Amino acid sequence: MADGDVVKMKLTFWRDDKKPGDLIEVPADEVHRWRGFAEQVGEPVPSGESTTPTAATSPFPRPADGAKVDDWRTYAVHLGMEQADADKATKADLQDYTAKINAGSKA
Fold first, then answer.
1. Mean pLDDT over the full length of the chain
2. Which sequence spans correspond to the domains of the chain?
């Protein structure tokens, strides 16, 4: 499954205002979270949108190396780090995390 693919799934349990049997679209990389709550219907199809955050499309510019740790926390959370993990991380940890994420988005 490619980044940005979506999968149609049929609900087997109630979810918000949806009832069992309703069809929903789920990002392909999130299907594993729906196991037991929905069944896959058909093959993944491209959505035309990437689900991987990238520095190029980020409304948050990369902080300067000398920026405050809080700026790095905000940036790391925007790129996908859990807030609790960001709160515990040092500035160096946050810079390493964001460098790995940005390197992965360029690959």
1. 79
2. 5-46, 53-107
